Amino acid sequence: MRTSKNIKLVIKNLTVKKPEKNITKTKPKESAKKKHKRLNKEKFELEKNQAIFLRELFSKCSNFGELGEENVKKFFINEKYEIPHARKIMGDFITLLRKEGINPKEKKKYNEISTSIKDDCFINFQNGDQRCFCCGEDIKYNVREDGKLEPKDVACDHVIPVITMLLTVKTDSISKNLHYIHNKCNGAKTNRNIYETCFNLGKKNGIFKCKNDDNIEYCRSKFFDILKKLNLRSEEEINYRILNLDSFKKFIDQFKNYINFFLNDEVNAALALTNLALKCKSKSKSKSMLKSNSKSKSKSKSKSKSKLKSKSKSSSMSIN
To answer: Kindly report the CA angle at 206 between 204 and 211, in degrees rounded to 5?
Structure first.
């Protein structure tokens, strides 16, 4: 028999429980003491890892050892050298030269200029082991009719970032700084310096999102093998180039304007229109200035006339 107590229990079990609200707990603010302690710990870990990297670099790459520890830190790790528009301007200029004199309908046809970067990556890929030095995984490729290996889903990477490379690496070995890596690895690497890159190579929990940690040794070995083949500039040459970096930035800006003006008809037309607009504005400003000046002159004249009249009246009153 169902008693009233049993019925109440059944009803209680049937009632739908309201979902609990997700209360987001705000993290307590970090105290100044704890923050200072954390930052000191992070600094200590960074210095320790950098010291390990530098020891390995100097033991495997004598060219870097010749520059000395302080210079390597300064030129390749601690400082980030950037030139605004440098990549863009070279890309624009090269694109214009590649298409110069080519029929616009022939979209896939280009001049031979500007292919050297891709050629260097391609040659290094043929002579290498067809593996990405960032993650250690194989790079997929197709075999061409001429027997050459055509890589797929790759980007041509500057192992040492491009501006740092221009400051530190001699032109005769720049080709050795160019290597194919996976597109996704290139997106993760971006403009990282040699220490930041090396620290993440082949790691499962690193920026390259590797499947496991099995390729760390391979990736680091290949990375140092690339670096030791570079012909580096002397300390004096590098410092001289760094000193002239600001003037070079200004030159790049001027050069970009010249290229746009002389080789791009659309920009040329736009500049002409802006110049006309500026001239019209200046003319209207000058006209308004003349009007305002004439008005102010007429006002001053009327004021002076009124003053003279008042003076003459006062003098006549005094005579009377």
So the answer is: 25
Total domain count for the chain? 1
- Show Cβ contacts of residue 101 under 8 Å, excluding neighbours closer than 6 positions: 111
The parent domain of residue 189 ranges over: 59-102+113-258
Mean predicted confidence (pLDDT) in 53-66: 97
Q: Which two tokens stand for residue 51?
A: 């010291």
In a domain? residue 173: yes
Work out the percent of the chain whose per-residue pLDDT is above 90. Answer: 49
Specify if 198 maps to a domain: yes
d(CA 49, CA 203): 15
What CA–CA distances, in Å, run from 21 to 10, 14, 15?
Answer: 26, 21, 18
According to DSSP, the residues that pair with 250 across neighbouring strands are: none
Q: Residue 151: what residue type? A: P
Cα–Cα distance measured from residue 136 to residue 115, given in angstroms and rounded to the nearest whole number: 27
E-assigned strand segments in 133-188? 141-143, 149-151, 154-158, 178-182
Q: Give the pLDDT confidence of 167-212 residue by residue, as tens digits.
A: 999 989 999 999 999 999 999 999 999 999 999 999 999 999 999 9
Question: Beta-carbon neighbour count of residue 58 at 10 Å?
Answer: 17
In a domain, 146, yes or no: yes
158 beta partners = 178
Cα→Cα distances 312→137, 301, 305, 320, Å: 103, 16, 11, 12
Give domain status of residue 312, yes or no: no
Amino acid in position 4: S
pTM of the model: 0.65
pLDDT score recorded for residue 212: 93
97, 114 Cβ separation under 8 angstroms: yes
Bridge partners, residue 156, by sequence: 180
Question: Rounded to whole angstroms, how far apart are CA atoms 102 and 109?
Answer: 7
**C-alpha–C-alpha distance, residues 184 and 198, integer Å:** 17
